[in-house]
Amino acid sequence: MKIKLRFLKKARKYLLLYVLLPILFLNALFQGGFVSWFLFYSFLPFILYCVAFSFYPLENLKVTRELPENGFKVGDPIKVILTMKKSNFFPVFYFLIVENYSNSLQTTNQQKFTKELILTGFKKECSFNYLIYKLPRGEYIFNSLTIKVGDPLGIFESKIKFNIINRFVVYPQYSEYYYHSLEHQNNQASTVSIHHFQRDISMAVGIREYQSGDRFSWINWKASAKRNEMMTKEFEELQSNDLFVIMDCAQNNLFESIVSFTASFLHTVLKKGIQVGLLTNNKKLDSFPIRGGEGHFQKLYYHLAKIEANNTSSIEMVLEKELRFIQQSVSYILITTRLSKNLVEKASFIKNRKGSFTIFVIKEESMVVSESEKSLISIANAHGVRTIIVREGNFNAAFTGGDIR
Questions:
Q1: Which of these, 14, 392, 356, 7, lies nearest to 190 by C-alpha position?
Q2: pLDDT grade, residue 190 (50/70/90)?
């Protein structure tokens, strides 16, 4: 039915052309005079162009959409370049380009491009660019674009849809800060160490079978040759320099600050050579093993770009159920916006069983710490759980003692 209506509509336009041309010719022939023939010869090129334009093959048009890169940071303007190439030099009066945004882009209340009219003339290739400003953190997709063309008289108009997929990611902002040493403990006493960026492996006390994650330098080659299987050195049990970060994904107006602070913290410690793992209590409860290096940071950074505040379990429940699967002794870092008695108790229990525990509490710049929170901070610190207040916009204070106003 649609095809039939489209055919009838096009046939009506052809009929209009074929009727208009004879009328102008007969008017000039019988009426005579300069004005009549001037009208006929003036409209003749437009009518002939419309007839030729009706057969213009839009399918041969080549359209590309380019982005200078696939990753941006929050606040960066995003430049989009559209290029059109015609298969011949046939003049097209105009191109009307309409971007068909994906749902993720349509739902953002930001200034963005929707359509553009380009007068191309005889140019075989033309391009233009536009900017999208202030997109929030997330992953976005350009689905397709529609191009419409028409003649000067507005009689014929054609359009075609090009499925051009472009993906890009808007990452959270992060900064690099001075990393202040965290509390370092061994199995005999509690001390503060200034050498937190190297694992102490000088005290080998035995050998054991190779396990996934063991370093290549730990392999005991003599023992491996004797037993005909891979054996690694076993060291005196010391508090590791590895960190395991837990990010609270509770929905609140400080969630973007939590994401930005987490990205800054991960970037800072990984650049120092420390190995880091990450657990986020979002809907999927994503967990990343303890690793190091730039590749590991990019994986975590990409996860933080897409993460949403959609937790289904409280952070206290996550601490109780999930951290028991981590066998090695590490330093735990919790990044959240609230403190509770239950949370302090869970953190204290984990600290006594597995390693040191530090809680970073993100607060707005003007928000005053309540007396109940100050009491919880004192209780946490008394149990060896370092609790640091971090002000929004002043993340560097997290590594210099924090703020408790």
A1: 356
A2: very low
pLDDT tens for 322-359 read: 766 565 678 899 999 989 999 999 998 888 877 789 99
- Residue 313, in any domain of the structure: yes
Entry pTM: 0.72
Question: What's 1-24 look like in SS3?
Answer: CHHHHHHHHHHHHHHHHHHHHHHH
CATH number at residue 128: 2.60.40.10
Structural domain contains residue 5:
no
Q: What is the pLDDT confidence band of residue 156, given thresholds at 50, 70 and 90?
A: confident
CA-only gyration radius of the chain, Å:
34
In this structure, what CATH number is given to the domain that contains residue 323? 3.40.50.410
My answer on whether 91 and 188 are in the same domain is no
pLDDT at residue 253 tops 80: yes
What is the residue range of 121's domain? 58-171
Both tokens assigned to 302: 């990409």
Alpha helices in 54-154 (DSSP H): 103-106
Helical H runs in 122-220? none
User: What's the total number of domains in the chain?
Assistant: 3
CA dihedral 376, 381, 385, 390 (to 10 degrees): 70
- Does residue 38 belong to any structural domain of this protein? no
Q: Is there a single domain that holds both residue 250 and residue 307?
A: yes
Query: For the purposes of burial, counting CB atoms within 10 Å of the CB of 192, is it exposed (0-12), middle (13-18) or buried (19 or more)?
Result: exposed
